[in-house]
Amino acid sequence: MKVSPIQFFRQVRQEAKKITWPTRKEVTQVTTIVLIIVTLAAAFFFAVDVVLAWAVKLILRLGV
After folding, report:
1. Does pTM top 0.70 for this prediction?
2. How far, CA to CA in Å, does 26 sit from each of 16, 20, 44?
């Protein structure tokens, strides 16, 4: 079914009216949770990287 540009934009406006935006409190809570999780993940991967680097150096020293 082909829709004219004017009809298309009317439909877009109707659909846009159905959007429920999060409150400031919800946005703040979710942002805080995301920042905490990202920080924890970064710390975890940093620790894994340090341990693996140490293990590789140890293995290469023993092999030589």
Report:
1. no
2. 20, 12, 27
Task: Give me the DSSP letters along 2-62.
Answer: ---HHHHHHHHHHHHHT--PPPHHHHHHHHHHHHHHHHHHHHHHHHHHHHHHHHHHHHHHH
User: Could you tell me the end-to-end alpha-carbon distance of the chain, in angstroms, rounded to an integer?
Assistant: 73
Count of C-beta atoms within a 10 Å radius of residue 38: 10
Q: What angle do CA 27, 33, 16 make, to 5 degrees?
A: 30
Question: To 10 degrees, the CA torsion angle through 57, 59, 63, 64?
Answer: 10
pLDDT in tens, 38-56: 999 999 999 999 999 999 9
